[in-house]
Amino acid sequence: MIIAIKGKKNSGKTAFIEKLLKKLNGYRVVVIKSSGHERIDDESKDTFRYRKAGSRAALIAVKEESVLFMDSMGLEDAVSFVRRKLAPDFIIVEGYKSVENLKCRVVDVEEKPDVEAIYQDMIKSLKRRRMEIFVDGKRLPMNEFVEEMMYNVVKSMLSTLKRGEGKEVEILLHERA
To answer: CA 58 from chain center: how many Å?
Structure first.
């Protein structure tokens, strides 16, 4: 489920998201934040120089956090990337002017929404997908029958492999020219 938080500058968007995140403790949540800044990475830093030299992305890992720098992407691409790579239960979007193309719930903090009510709605809507297929970065919609069938076929084929518990499996197919 995607929740888009909207409101004017200093209207309480961040505080609302923080309250919601505390309630969602234990769930996998990703926040996608838009900013008016031109760039975050600094031209004098190695991460910037690696990308300028041709690296697709540069990840810097320090003791308590990691940051992935890559070329800018639109909101839909960012959501798709997060779904594929982080498999969250919920995605919270903040700071985007336009969310029409997302199938999401929009919460306007200026209307003083009830955090508990939003949280309860999110939990009710949570449907753990057993399988998702992405083609060229876009999620392939599947009805429940097709999803269950594909899940069982792939799970059966992988059950003969003796690696890990198989609670989460990622298969990447690349067609190279």
So the answer is: 19
Task: Tell me how far apart the terminal alpha carbons of the chain are, to the nearest angstrom.
Answer: 35
Cα dihedral sign, 63-55-81-109: positive
The domains of the chain are located at: 2-39+72-128, 130-177
pLDDT, tens only, 74-122: 888 888 889 888 888 899 999 877 777 778 888 899 999 999 999 999 9
* Tokens linked to 113: 């929404």
93 CB neighbour count, 10 Å cutoff? 24
Report, at the CATH architecture level, how domain 2-39+72-128 is classified.
3-Layer(aba) Sandwich (3.40)
- Helix (H) or strand (E) segment spanning residue 21: helix 13-23
Contacts of 23 (CB under 8 A, 6+ apart): 115, 116, 119
